[in-house]
Write a structure and sequence with these properties.
Chain B: InterPro entries: Cyt_b561_bac/Ni-Hgenase, Cytochrome_b561_oxidase, Di-haem_cyt_TM. Chain B: Pfam families: Ni_hydr_CYTB (PF01292). Chain B: It is found in: Cell membrane. Chain B: This is Cytochrome b/b6 domain-containing protein. The complex is a heterodimer of chains A (358) and B (173). Chain A contains eight helices and ten strands. Chain A is globular. In chain A, strand 3 and strand 4 form a beta hairpin. Chain A has a single domain, classed as Catalase HpII,  Chain A, domain 1. Chain A is an alpha+beta fold and 358 residues long. In chain B, a hairpin with a 2-residue loop joins strand 1 and strand 2. Chain B has five helices and two strands, in the order αααββαα. Helix content of chain B is 73%, strand content 4%. The termini of chain B are close together. The radius of gyration of chain B is 18 Å and the shape is elongated. With 173 residues, chain B is mainly α. Chain B has a two-stranded antiparallel sheet. Chain B has a single domain, classed as Fumarate Reductase Cytochrome B subunit (Up-down Bundle). The chains are: A alpha+beta (358), B mainly alpha (173).
Chain lengths: 358, 173
């Protein structure tokens, strides 16, 4: 059928309108236009820096085990935030203790930071999730630097190790990263998951009952006295010594931390997790985190949650720290991928299956 | 005068057109970024999704109560089939997409937060494998929805500008 010549301009108009809509969609979705960093791009670069994909595992903090217990709030935190967690009472907690890095069967005998993912169950279905590290500062201040650092850390195919010629220039041009690496090298590492502090890493906004907003960081301070890990003998320690120690310790009795809220002073940076808040600060002891059970991931109920630090109850909100939304988006991308790949047994379970005894 | 859709059907159509297009753009936009836009857009995605689900159920009832105006008698059978089939798919997607979103967040173990302090109950038990499948379906169906909407707009404009048969005016007029 021949199309009458007079309707051609009208067909062209329709085609142009549809093309314009498709272009708007493509631009909003980031497929055309200036380079944006998506959560998926962060997961991609983590996979590259890991040297391979470990299907079913987190793209970072791949090795971990499950903990559970409760948080006993003393009510003092309510002066800073109307979050249900700060109302006097006891709230169930599950969580996941992990070491940094993307290799789920890595050995614990390396200078690596300890992390804790926590999920506090609050009334009316509310939750507060945290992903906290034993280091008070982070290695970079923004997602672009994080991607660049991971890119510089991609293993050289010849040596299987990161190329110093790539890492060197990044560290040289990023003094905050140099400071973090120096901290990891010189600061004493806790000898256990149980005797070190855990920091919120980022600043958050706390809203009190009157609607006043304050910038706050927090830290969990261990009841168990700090003992230092002997870095000189690290590589001679058993493969899972940190995790095995935690499994054994919880059997002896609950492990406790005080939750200390730290209120920003005027002038404290809330948008840069590489900078510590130094000097005296208003501190509030909000209660005690009690962990009284620990199991392997395969046996526990912690692996299949995403410890997204932006799952927050009312009374707590994100600060202007650019790392927070990036952590949230990247964790979600990692969660989507490992969900589709299907969960796998963890390193500690595999070692037990091969005859290891605690 | 051209027969028209009932007034509630026309109001629901244009309101939902705006919401669904916004929703597809919010979904695509939030996945493209790690800036503060990500949590902001995500916070809009859930309440708008719930709103679309409620409106879609009302619309389904309106559609069952009010017979739509007939298609032109001279419309070729293939176009009639395309018109009927695409409308079944549009209705299916506007009800299924929010339900899949709600179900996948439930299966993922996420709190389905409509706004701070208001969390919907889960409609599936926590199961990360189910989450993975539903999440993949949510994304693929979103692309299918967008393509279907492009086809719908293209067909509507074809009726308005080329055939000039009153079909466009029955919804727009």
């Amino acid at each position: 059928m021949a199309v009458p010549i007079r309707i051609l301009p009208r067909l062209a108009l329709i085609a142009a309108l549809l093309a314009a809509l498709a272009l708007i969609f493509a631009w909003v979705g980031g497929w055309i236009g200036r380079g944006r960093i998506s959560g998926a791009a962060v997961a991609d670069v983590l996979q590259a820096a890991n040297g391979k994909v470990y299907p079913g595992f987190r793209r970072a903090h791949a090795k971990g085990l499950c903990v559970s217990g409760h948080f006993d709030a003393n009510g003092a935190g309510a002066v800073l935030s109307r979050a249900a967690l700060f109302q006097r009472g006891s709230y169930p907690v599950i969580g996941r203790a992990s070491t940094g890095g993307g290799d789920p069967i890595s050995a614990d005998g390396r200078p690596v930071f300890h992390a804790l993912g926590l999920r506090f169950a609050l009334p009316q279905g509310e939750e507060w999730r945290m992903a906290i590290d034993h280091t008070p500062i982070f290695v970079v201040s923004n997602p672009a630097d994080f991607v660049a650092l991971q890119q510089a850390s991609i293993p050289d195919p010849k040596t299987g190790k990161p190329d110093p010629a790539k890492i060197g220039p990044f560290v040289a041009s990023h003094p905050e990263t140099a400071a973090f690496l120096a901290y990891m090298k010189t600061a004493p590492l806790p000898s256990s998951f149980a005797n070190g502090p855990y920091y919120s890493i980022n600043a958050f906004r706390f809203l009190d009952a009157a609607g006043t907003s304050r910038a706050v960081r927090w830290q969990f301070e261990p009841e168990a006295p700090f003992t230092e890990l002997d870095k000189a003998t690290l590589d001679k320690r058993p493969k899972d010594f940190l995790f095995d120690e935690l499994l054994a310790r919880v059997k002896q009795g609950p492990i406790r931390w005080r939750m200390i809220l730290v209120v920003a002073n005027p002038g404290d940076r809330t948008d840069n997790a590489t900078i510590r808040w130094t000097g005296p600060h208003r501190q509030i002891d909000a209660g005690t985190l009690v962990l009284d059970a620990a199991t392997t991931e395969a046996a526990g109920n912690c692996r299949d949650y995403n410890y997204d630090p932006l799952i927050l109850p009312k009374g707590v909100a994100a600060s202007d720290d650019p790392l927070l939304p990036a952590r949230s988006a990247a964790y979600a991308a990692s969660f989507r991928r490992r969900a589709l790949e299907g969960p796998k047994p963890d390193a500690i379970t595999l070692d037990y299956q091969q005859g290891k005894t605690l | 005068m051209t027969p028209r859709f009932a007034l509630p059907a026309r109001i629901l159509h244009w309101l939902m057109a705006a919401l669904i297009l916004a929703m597809l753009l919010i979904g695509a936009g939030m996945l493209s970024t790690t800036t503060a836009r990500y949590p902001e857009l995500l916070a809009w995605h859930r309440p708008i999704g719930l709103g679309i689900l409620i409106l879609a159920l009302i619309r389904l009832a309106v559609r069952l109560m009010h017979r739509p105006p007939p298609l032109p008698a001279d419309l070729p059978p293939l176009q009639v089939a395309a018109a009927k089939g695409s409308h079944y798919l549009l209705y299916a997607l506007m009800i299924a997409m929010p339900l899949i979103g709600w179900a996948m967040q439930s299966a993922g173990g996420y709190p389905v937060t409509i706004w701070k302090g208001f969390v919907l109950f889960p409609i599936l038990p926590h199961d990360i494998v189910v989450y993975g499948l539903l999440r993949a379906a949510h994304g693929l169906l979103a692309y299918a929805f967008f393509l279907l909407i492009l086809g719908h707009i293209g067909a509507a404009l074809f009726h308005a500008l080329v055939r000039r048969d009153g079909v466009f005016e029955s919804m727009a007029g």
